[in-house]
Design a protein that fits this description.
Layout (H helix, E strand, L loop, with lengths): L16 E6 L2 H13 L3 E6 L1 H10 L4 E4 L8 H11 L4 E6 L4 H9 L4 E4 L4 H40 L4 E5 L5 E4 L2 H6 L3 H4 L13 H7 L11 E7 L9 E9 L22 E7 L1 H15 L9 H18 L2 E10 L1 H8 L1 H16 L7 E6 L2 E9 L2 H14 L4 E3 L2 E3 L2 E9 L6 H17 L5 E3 L2 H23 L2 E10 L5 E12 L3 E3 L1 H10 L3 H21 L6 E5 L2 H5 L3 H11 L7 E6 H6 L1 H13 L3 E7 L16 E4 L1 H5 L6 H15 L3 E4 L5 H10 L3 E2 L8 E2 H7 L12
Parallel strand pairs: 1-2, 1-3, 3-4, 4-5, 16-17, 19-21, 21-22, 22-23, 23-24, 24-25, 25-26
Antiparallel strand pairs: 6-7, 6-10, 8-9, 9-10, 11-13, 11-16, 12-13, 14-15, 18-19, 18-26, 18-27, 19-20
Helix pairs in contact: 2-3, 11-12
EC number: 3.1.4.52
GO molecular function: cyclic-guanylate-specific phosphodiesterase activity
InterPro entries: Biofilm_reg_signaling, CheY-like_superfamily, EAL_dom, EAL_sf, GGDEF_dom, Nucleotide_cyclase, PAS, PAS-like_dom_sf
Amino acid sequence: MAPELTDQPFSHGLTARILVADDEPRLLDTLASLLRSRGYDVSEAHGGRKACELIDQQGFDLALLDLRMPDVTGFDVMAHLAKGQPECGVIVVSGESSFSSVSRALRRGALDYIRKPFDPEELLATVESVIGKKSLLKAHEHIQLRLEKSEALHRYIVNSSPDIVFMLDQEGHFCFINSKVESLLGYQPSELCGQHFRHILDDRDVTRGTMALKGPNITADNPRTLEVRLKTRGSRRATRHFEITAFPIDPQTWPHSGATQGGGNGNGAQYYGTARDVTERKEAEAFINFQAYHDLLTRLPNRALFKDRLELAITHAKRGGQKLAVMFLDLDRFKVINDTLGHAMGDRLLQAVTHRLEKCLRKGDTLSRFGGDEFTLLLPSIHNHEDARQIAKKLIDALRAPFQLGDHEVFVGVSIGISIFPEAGETMDHLIQNADIAMYHVKAKGKDSYRFYSESMSIDTANRLNLERDLRQALERDELRVFYQPQVCSKTNRVVGLEALVRWQHPERGLLYPRDFLPLAEETKLIGQLSERVLDQACQDVGRWIRSGHSDLRLAVNLSPIQVEHPRFVETLMQQVEAHKFPAGNLEIEITENVIMNDLEQISQKLRELASFGVRIAIDDFGTGYSSLNYLHRLPIHTLKVDQSFVKAIRSGDDGACIVNAIVAMAHGLKLEIVAEGVETDEQLEYLRSLGCHQVQGFFYGPARPAAEIAKTLGITRARAASFG
């Protein structure tokens, strides 16, 4: 096994280890003593075989060898040294003087040749010279090794840097770039060296990037820092964002010349710097900025961004004497779909609506989601009202086709209010507010249409706001009243049911009828609270009369579409009924055909649940709504109420009488009860009796009355018409 050798040079304070090999014991002892006298660490080997053994056991700096040794010659020892300790120097001390032997020894690596007998001083001088040279060679090798390690370390640091490290010449050409450029941008360092750095600048940043290094104030304390986009190699990879910091180089502090490994040698460098990849930071900043100004569900501009663009558009319109339009869009029937199918389906519907609306826009228009199911649209640079009208029609038509949400096919419409600058307002807030006012007028007139704002709307709106305020206070102050209109048996004149009708005892305007405030209650979503109050009071009043002896008395209540379409409609209704201990079999709810047909599947399920509790179902205003009658035999319908418009038309030979005939005959055929509304004359009553219509209500028996008056009437078992007058 080869001995372990030190990599430190022998000099100053380190003793050279010398092997002396000879087959003459006296000469060997003399030579060893001479060397020890000069402080060398000497090992003696009597013969070549012993020398080889010592070489295998320990390391030597120098070997003095005799060539003529039996068995193992000096040449053999030199070969053994070359194999085991190649750095050990050799001096031949031999009596062999032939040219061939000397030449052979020198070729084998001997550093010098001393002929026996030797001069002690000459030998010591030769040993000292050889050892000195070996020491210098070792020191040089050590320094070289350290330099190589240092260069490798710095190269590793530079190439392992998370940033691109580069050097540029005076003109901006790369004269060095580290290998990080390959992983970040896809370029080999060698292909960029010699290229101008604008070669990798994005086209949008070439001018700014090239001008950056021309500034006169770039110093080591004031480096040039800028953010630019750099192109990646090939078209499949995206442009990336980098923060570049560049410093000037003092030529006196950079005397470097010669080649280095990798991208360039740095010759002629005038600038050095780093390029840090900040793409993720820029993308995060862009996303945060997007969140601040966009609706994440629809990806549309939000209210803040819409107002910014509208403000800018108003400025341009004023400067150029142009018009612009603001549209306020509110989806019809969205709340019904959202409550019925859930918010996830509602979100999908909003995204689908957005997709259709965007197809109707011109370049430069701004559609934003204002909140919920409300959208706003900015139309800059229009010529007249007709331009806005055409866009509004496109938007309405775009939403008329059904939307497919999973297994459900749903329909939504849109109500659009339009305000034109400058007629409808010269400020951002006025234009948005007035478009909103116009939209509410569309809602009040039947929805799914558009209207332009006019000054008269502001007056109506002021009244509407006052009425809305009063209606909210009416709920708090208990100003609502419940009146009852009797439903009478046409044969016996006996009261068989009572329809609960709401009135509002306004403190200033007196008694208001449903037509005066129910549309507003539905629009402002107050209809739910209002209906709950009416049902609570009706259950109390009629429940008391039922318990006092009128066990068959029926309570009929009208329900709004908003109530019926609510997902918890059945649960809420039955909780109210049970809270008042009202017998479910005495309750009849009245809904219109249109409510049923808006969502036949869902409404059918709710009606069946109510019927299972014993609640009766009546179709109000029958004959005025949906044309298909297919639902009648599919749903648990108990009663048809003939609309008063048909009853009023009962005259000899009038078409209205024919419609009543058909409705009554159909009700008999389906074994449904029938109630005729709006009966006012003997002629109408007799005609209905003759058809077999056994229940009627109307002014013939009196208008709706407060509970106190109805209680007195119920004390008469068989009532005459006059008693209700």
